[in-house]
From TrEMBL:
UniProt keyword terms in alphabetical order: DNA-binding
Region span, Disordered: 1-34
Listed GO MF terms: DNA binding; DNA-binding transcription factor activity
InterPro entries the record matches: DNA-bd_dom_put_sf, MerR-type_HTH_dom, MerR_fam
Highest taxon, organism lineage: Bacteria
Name of protein: MerR family transcriptional regulator
Domain named HTH merR-type: residues: 36-105
Length: 161
């Protein structure tokens, strides 16, 4: 983790050697000591639908998911870590194609760290721009709220005239 612009950042990934997600705990806690999950358990844990999880796998956003002897998907903790990152990337506004590209780079191996870094830095710049825009918008809203909280209502204006 490195603090930058007052923001602490962390980049989790599916690789065991990469740091775990340092974000707030998931609203859907994992069962203690478990490392195999069905698609319905993952859906309950992440808040995503089973359809979305299958779609993520189909478009290459998810790495290969293990299967049971009956063909059912069996997710692991590393898959849940990856889904946490994908959720964060979604919140940044990164297009699905960008997320899929990042997933491809991760699967390709460690030799492309600079390209991954460039992709994440570009996304970070976009997030900072959005934060600045939202702060400006918040300032306008605060100004309007202050105006309306101090302005007399029409019925009060009639009484004082």
């Amino acid at each position: 983790m490195t603090p930058r612009d007052g923001v602490t950042t962390s980049v989790p990934g599916p690789d065991p050697g990469e740091p775990a997600c340092a974000a707030e705990p998931s609203p859907y806690p994992r069962p203690e000591g478990q490392d195999r999950y069905t698609i319905s358990e993952v859906a309950a844990h992440t808040g995503l639908t089973a359809h979305t999880l299958r779609w993520y796998e189909r478009i290459g956003l998810m790495p290969h998911i293990d299967r049971s002897h009956t063909g059912q998907r069996r997710y692991r903790n590393r898959d849940l870590d990856w889904l946490d990152l994908v959720g964060k990337l979604r919140l940044t506004g990164m297009p699905v194609a960008g997320m899929v590209r990042f997933a491809e780079l991760v699967r390709d191996g460690d030799h492309n760290f600079p390209e991954r870094q460039r992709l994440l830095e570009a996304t970070r710049r976009d997030v900072l721009t959005r934060i600045a825009e939202l702060r400006d918008t918040l300032a306008v809203l605060d100004h309007k709220i202050d105006f309306y909280s101090t302005a007399a209502s029409p019925s009060e204006r009639n009484l004082t005239q």
